[in-house]
Amino acid sequence: EAKGDGGAKYHIYHEEMYKKVALRVMMESEVRQALAKNQFSLSLQPQLEAKTKKLYGFEALLRWQHPERGMVSPEDFIPLLENSQYMVELGYWVIRRCFELCQTFIDKGLTDVRIAINLSAGQFADPHLTDYLIDLLAEFSLEANHFELELTEQTLVKNIDSAIEMMNGLRDIGFSFAIDDFGTGYSSLAYLKKMPVDVIKIDKSFVFGMLENRADYQIIMSTIAMVKKLGLLVIAEGVETSAQLRSLTENDCDIIQGYYFSKPIPETKLMEFIDTKIVNGYWKVSVL
Ligand code: C2E
Ligand code: MG
Ligand code: MG
Ligand code: MG
């Protein structure tokens, strides 16, 4: 009996593996075509200073408009492409697009805007990343302080010594670094101590229930206090309600990102969004 069970399990395991590999291979070839066919775009989600409602910046979020499958969520294809050369290629496409958008923002009068760019592990491990960024700065004549590079704890764990070296080099040029999804990975505290970062982004999973769940609330508030004592900036993502906003603001959270202010805005709607929602660099308060 035991043998039979093992065999069945082995079989299922094998099938799962096969499906995963097949899906990844399919994804890779689709991504290659999608890049050529311009099926990717970015949506940008505003980040606002909690106390003043000054625009801090926008996070760039990848969107894939697939001809048959519709809008494919990055959470459904980015993990599959991890460790693939196509993710690196796609990542470079994202970075270049962010530089173009930054130029557009500046032309629009948002002269101190920041764009947050998510970097995948493979992309961050790519030896050409630093040169690519330096070349883009020259090509666009833009200052590096317009760009914040987001890494996760999972990305950092892969090769901590070379990560630190690379981050120091890029920070010397003016790029800043954020740890994304903070609190969901491993060794958060060790990373806080070791990594040359500027910003901590508290993961939205803690924010969603922060006013109902005592543990989430305490984790958020002590994270904010700790991050600020270390002299770093703290962003809360996933802020959906005015009550969450109020509580985070009262407890000294620096920056707010979430549906309460805005969902990510497709590139095509971006200028209209800025015209209607941002005035002189501040979030427009609706006067009733
Ligand atoms: P992330 O970097 O943590 O981005 C924040 C995610 O939270 C985004 O999901 C955003 O739409 C969502 N979000 C923000 N505020 C709220 C809110 O108030 N409520 C809810 N329910 N969700 C909110 P999205 O756009 O689906 O992206 C998912 C993940 O995909 C990102 O998480 C990031 O890890 C990855 N990703 C997106 N774009 C890129 C990219 O260009 N490169 C890489 N490497 N990863 C990317
Ligand atoms: Mg992010
Ligand atoms: Mg995040
Ligand atoms: Mg995330």
From TrEMBL:
The keyword Membrane applies. GO terms for molecular function: catalytic activity. Keywords: Coiled coil, Membrane, Transmembrane, Transmembrane helix. The keyword ATP-binding does not apply. It comes from the Bacteria. Residues 24-278 form the EAL domain. This is EAL domain-containing protein. It comes from Colwellia hornerae. The chain holds residues 534 to 821 of 821 of the full protein.
